[in-house]
Design a protein that fits this description.
single chain, alpha/beta, TIM Barrel, about 55% helix, about 15% strand, TSA/FSA_arc/bac, Transaldolase_AS, Aldolase_TIM
Length: about 220
């Protein structure tokens, strides 16, 4: 299963990419605006941090399909490497996904709230769909069940489209979408770092070290 960082903070991206097996980075307009930097240089800095082979997701902001397509082409021309264009699942967005699919430009359908949103996007030729797990829960829905339903629909329809679950408030939600069959997740740096925040790990390591030092007085097997 793929793991993406949902952030435009270059320092945090670099840190996580150095330590963990990250498959790429997802961004959106809100995440980019938060950094307060010119967006193309920022995206290039992100790509320098992760390398050109890993996927970088960049969202179009235009409303009309033809304009979305032009933005997608501009993004592809301006950046090197493995770029995926994020497009909201509006009617115009679905039209743009169809047009871009014919051009060989890969897309992710974002703002997915229902299985039928995902179905329409996959039919249009999207490479990924991103159901908003926690936001669905906040609307009195069931985000995990939506992911399960999308996975089942895609399997039965033989869609060549992956489920990249998004919008998490805790690691339990990430665990549950993994078990639900999602092909990937994108999470904030804080959520990813929380995967290892288990007090028992630190306690165990400290015990191992204390007992080793007590007998051998060395902090390395090489001494």
């Amino acid at each position: 299963m793929k793991l993406f960082i949902d952030s435009a903070d270059v320092n945090k991206i670099q840190l996580l990419n150095d330590y963990y097996s990250i498959d790429g980075v997802t961004t959106n307009p809100s995440i980019i605006v938060k950094e307060g930097k010119p967006y193309l240089p920022l995206l290039k800095d992100i790509q320098s941090s992760i390398g050109t082979e890993k996927e970088l997701f960049v969202q179009a902001i235009a409303d009309m399909a033809e304009n979305i397509v032009e933005e997608a082409k501009y993004i592809q021309d301006s950046l090197q490497g493995n770029i995926v264009i994020k497009i909201p699942v509006t009617s115009e967005g679905l039209k743009a996904i169809k047009l871009l699919s014919r051009m060989g430009i890969r897309t992710l359908a974002t703002t997915v709230y229902t299985p039928m949103n995902a179905y329409l996007a996959a039919k249009a030729g999207a490479s990924y769909v991103a159901p908003y797990v926690n936001r669905i829960d906040n609307l009195s829905g069931n985000g995990i069940q939506v992911v399960k339903d999308i996975v089942e629909i895609f399997a039965k329809s033989n869609f060549n489209c992956e489920v990249l679950a998004a919008s998490f408030k805790n690691t339990q939600q990430v665990l549950e979408v993994c078990l639900a069959g999602a092909q990937g997740v994108t999470a904030s740096p804080d959520i990813i770092e929380a995967f290892l925040k288990v007090p028992s790990i630190k306690e165990n390591v400290e015990t191992f070290s204390k007992e080793w030092y007590g007998l051998y007085g060395s902090n390395s097997l090489l001494d």
